[in-house]
Amino acid sequence: MKTLILIPAYNEAESIEHVVDNITNNFPQYDYVVVNDGSSDGTRKICKERGYNLLDLPANLGLAGAIKSGMKYANFCQYDRVVQIDGDGQHDPQYIADMLEMMDRDDCDIVIGSRFVSKKKNLSMRMFGNNLIEFLILITTGKKITDPTSGMRLFNKKMIKKFGYNTNYGPEPDTLAFLINSGVRVGEVQVEMKEREFGTSYLSFTRSVLYMMHMVYGILIFQWFRRKDKR
Amino acid sequence: MSTGLRIALLIAALMSGLFVIYRIRRSKVRLQDTLFWIFTVIVLALLGIFPRISFWAAGLLGIQSPANFVYLLMIALLLEKLLTLSIQHSQMEEHYVELAAELALRCKDLEEQIEKLKHKGTDEPE
Prior knowledge:
Chain A is α/β, with parallel strands linked by helices. Chain A has a single domain (3-225), classed as Spore Coat Polysaccharide Biosynthesis Protein SpsA, Chain A, CATH 3.90.550.10. Chain A has eight helices and seven strands. In chain A, α2 links the parallel β2 and β3 (54-57). Chain B has one domain.
């Protein structure tokens, strides 16, 4: 079983070195690929200089496009599993082993690294959004996903093909809800995440509002129009 | 508002609704691009089912015939779509220029590297 760590990176010059070196030094059992999503800072230069395994997109496609490219790469190189982690160093690769174990044990197609399996959410605007999405997924699928917005996810071969080659398979909670209703098995493993050390979050206020609007529409309305392929 | 117009609105809502759903089922359209059409379909259907909305809104805007309010609303929706399409178009145009430029740069870089390797190959026996 070959496992690939997929690191989408948009303007992560300050942190990418730390993230990749951590993987190559401490977790050599995993392969990795950095998908540079048309960064305007030195991300590409650093990756080239340090000889990282880099998939360099010529334009900025956004997270969904970066993940899609990474999944195509994984499929092309015949990986069986892909773990998506952020390029800002907030996800610790030590939890990948737990996620892989859960995938084998429970025959899951997707395993989410969740902050809240055994821990409570604190009260903030960000968690309000997280709670709302959790609630929407619960009422439309009957399944409790404690951390639907987590950016640390493990996919199996079947999901690699779906995410790499289909339309409307963005790495977001609405896809998750649709997949659960299509019979895909989703599991969650407790992980710790660090606060982001460098750079700014992709989600500004207006973006967050737009994001929430898309998620509400996607989970409540859009998913029912989509065609399900059976598991 | 005449019964004919109400029926026309309902038929328009039904047809565009079915078409959008068909496109979604064929995976031919992205989520964010369907939001506007689903919204429009709902508005058209509401106007067809509850003509009182048009009477009320026409009174509010000082329009004599409620049918004219329906036309105004459609023009407004079309203008909004035109505006967003025009913005999207200009962004795509920009993307296309960027892509072509970036691609040309990378090709040139690769060609230079190949040339260098060729020279290396011929230099070595000496």
